[in-house]
Amino acid sequence: MFLDPEKLIQQLGLMPGMIVADIGSGIGYFALPITQQIGTTGHVYAIDIYGDVLKRLNHDAREKNITNITTLVCDAEKKGGIPLKNETVDMVLVINTLFQSGNHQAILLESLRILKTGGSIVIIEWVDSFNNLGPIPEHVVSVDSVHTLAQSLGLVYVRDIGNPGIHHFGLIFQK
């Protein structure tokens, strides 16, 4: 396993009642366990461009009696593409998503739009291709490029995530 959701989630500072957006959530690898950390007063928006993966997430949530999650099929690369109001969420997760995108800035701008002032953006990406075990080499997003982009958008670097996984880096920024 490359990323351990339970271990990683413990490092994010999640609190009961928080509203979290997981951009590129896929089948809910992180979104589902986060629902336990934020409790019934919190809520997770699992966001993905692919509806089929969100159907599976919805099925798994029903099986586990998880009710504090909403799936949204939408394009986070488009301005206003996420159907949430401005400053709605306390934390945005962008985990293994930027390497799949042709427009990193657009994803972070949309993340900023839905993020409350003082909220956090968590970015986790592959550190290398590892002979195509991870993304193809041309799609690897470097730590430096994430820092540069985040700074250009006015995000404030908070800290590295101690150990997101052997093949990944993790950064937390604040709006």
Number of helices: 5
Radius of gyration: 15 Å
Share of residues in strands:
25-35%
Instruction: Tell me which CATH architecture applies here.
Output: 3-Layer(aba) Sandwich
- Structural category: alpha/beta
Termini Cα gap: 31 Å
What is the CATH superfamily label? Vaccinia Virus protein VP39
- CATH top level is Alpha Beta
State mean pLDDT (0 to 100 scale): 94
The neighbouring-strand order within the major sheet is 3-2-1-4-5-7-6
Give me the CATH fold name.
Answer: Rossmann fold
Determine the oligomeric state from the structure: single chain
Helical amount = 25-40%
- Could you give the count of β-strands? 7
Which geometry do the CA atoms define?
globular
Task: Pick out the low-confidence regions.
Answer: none
Main pleated sheet: 7 strands, mixed
Number of domains: 1
Please write the string of helix (H) and strand (E) elements. HEHEHEEHEHEE
